[in-house]
Amino acid sequence: MNIFRLLGDLSHLLAIMILLQKIFYSRSCAGISAKSQVLFAIVYTARYLDLVTVYVSLYNISMKVVFLLSSYATLYLIYLKFRATYDRNHDTFRIEFLLLPAIVLALLINHQFSALEVLWTFSIYLESVAILPQLFMVSKTGEAESITSHYLFALGSYRGLYILNWFYRYWTEGHYDLIAIVAGVVQTVLYCDFFYLYVTKVLKGKKLQLPA
Amino acid sequence: QVVEENHDEL
């Protein structure tokens, strides 16, 4: 554990908390892509199956449990509790175009051809593109609420900080994992356009609006 | 080696 990794995890946690409290207190999931949230629930489920096989640390277990529970809680809020506010007409990204390549790639490129390892690899690939339905939705409506922008910024920063963590681990331990690094870079690059808009607009108190 | 290390990160 190093500072980048810790900040990355905290940023991830912050993103989830922002999203949950936004939906909960506004009693609305308008502007949130349910499809991205479904993909995240699949990502955490596939990745954290090791909860029942390996003990790493109390920190590790707690974070995994929080990420899993919060992803299902988010789905519950969107699909059941506040389903009337779900903006399904703008959430039209076809997630099979992300799921199928992630499955095929995980079967082809992995560290070890075992069930848990292929699922871990699948979750890494899928996570790198899981935000696309959400970004697609923002581009389709041309705008995002500030709170949604804060959510996206925190979520995007998380993998960016993990990249610094991987640099640090390479220098200090000589450890590196190409699958995680390449997927992490792809994931972060997908947010770059958004990061730019966030810094130039949202931080200056303006609403995130895309040029028409 | 790499496979074990994967369980630590989130």
UniProtKB/TrEMBL annotation, chain A:
Chain coiled-coil ranges: none
One cellular-component annotation, GO: endoplasmic reticulum membrane
InterPro entries: ER_ret_rcpt (IPR000133)
GO biological process: protein retention in ER lumen; protein transport; vesicle-mediated transport
PROSITE patterns cross-referenced by the UniProt entry: ER_LUMEN_RECEPTOR_1, ER_LUMEN_RECEPTOR_2
Transmembrane segments: 61-80, 92-113, 119-138, 150-168, 174-199
Superkingdom to which the source organism belongs: Eukaryota
Compartments in which it is found: Endoplasmic reticulum membrane
Keyword Repeat in annotation: no
Topology of the protein relative to the lipid bilayer: Multi-pass membrane protein
Keywords: Endoplasmic reticulum, ER-Golgi transport, Membrane, Protein transport, Receptor, Transmembrane, Transmembrane helix, Transport
GO molecular function terms attached to this record: ER retention sequence binding
Family per similarity comment: Belongs to the ERD2 family.
Official protein name in the record: ER lumen protein-retaining receptor
UniProt organism field: Dendroctonus ponderosae (Mountain pine beetle)
Underlying gene: 109545268
